[in-house]
Write a structure and sequence with these properties.
Strand order of the largest sheet: 2-1-3-4
Number of strands: 4
Structural class: alpha+beta
Radius of gyration: 19 Å
């Protein structure tokens, strides 16, 4: 058997090869299945890869979450490698010699990581809360979409198990017992911090986008364009014109379409 050292050398050599031509990005089905937080994260990765000018093909799968090495979507298959979630994919791309943060100094890179953590810990958690804790949203949207790929009665079992998993996560971060008003306040404070950091510039750092811009775009665009029984989060985001302008700019520049946001 090959030694672990040989395996690590082989993996490192493979990672340094050029970007494969047949990279596939796996995610749930957009029209009937995907939920707000997963859609946001998949869109963030798509935006990041487009910002890096890297080719990929979106591959919808009903069981994409189960296929992922981390149990989360999206994930990419690039040659021999399967890598999941934005941070892991950014690291993989950096290993290919492509980086969006080359111009940043150490302090800026530290600030970038801090703001990405803020988005993860507030915006994404708020999306999970709305989808799985808010009863109206769960009954009308989440249970229908999440269960759509399973036959009855398996759909009810899968919904119940997933909801228990999310509720456990929200309890660990002290979000499960928050009121809707408290959730809205957290999101507003996060948007305020992002708006102050953006300060009416084109992007959060330097004059070109980074993975932070991709992450913010993914979440805010999805919040603004996803029909839900409650549009409270979208109303909050729309109070920050600089964030709206960032979303429009990235949509137009990297997704080759006129901005849909009004």
């Amino acid at each position: 058997m090959p030694s672990p050292l040989i395996d690590r050398i082989s993996i490192a050599q493979e990672a340094q090869k050029p970007w494969p031509k047949d990279v596939k990005l796996f995610q749930p089905y957009e029209v009937e299945q995907i939920l707000l937080p997963d859609n946001a994260n998949c869109l963030a990765v798509q935006a990041f890869l487009k910002m890096c000018n890297l080719d990929f093909q979106v591959e919808p799968r009903a069981n994409a979450e189960a296929m992922s090495p981390t149990g989360k979507v999206p994930f990419i298959k690039a040659g021999r490698f399967v890598t999941a979630e934005l941070e892991g994919i950014v690291q993989f791309v950096n290993g290919k010699g492509k980086s969006l943060t080359d111009k940043l100094d150490n302090e800026q890179k530290s600030n970038l990581r801090a703001y990405m953590t803020l988005v993860r810990n507030v915006i994404e958690i708020a999306e999970l809360y709305m989808c799985w804790v808010d009863k109206e949203t769960y009954d009308e949207v989440t249970s229908v979409r999440h269960g759509s790929v399973y036959p009855w009665p398996l759909n009810h079992f899968q919904n119940r198990e997933k909801r228990k998993q999310i509720v456990k996560k929200l309890k660990l971060v002290d979000w499960h017992n928050k009121s809707l008003q408290e959730v809205h306040q957290e999101v507003e404070l996060c948007c305020e911090a992002l708006s102050v950091r953006l300060d009416n510039k084109s992007y959060f750092f330097v004059d070109s986008p980074t993975e932070l811009d991709a992450l913010v775009f993914g979440h805010l665009f999805t919040i603004l364009t996803t029909p839900l029984p409650r549009n409270d989060l979208a109303k909050i985001v729309r109070r920050y014109p600089s964030l709206i302008n960032l979303v429009k700019k990235i949509e137009t520049q990297y997704f080759k379409k006129d901005a849909k946001l009004q």
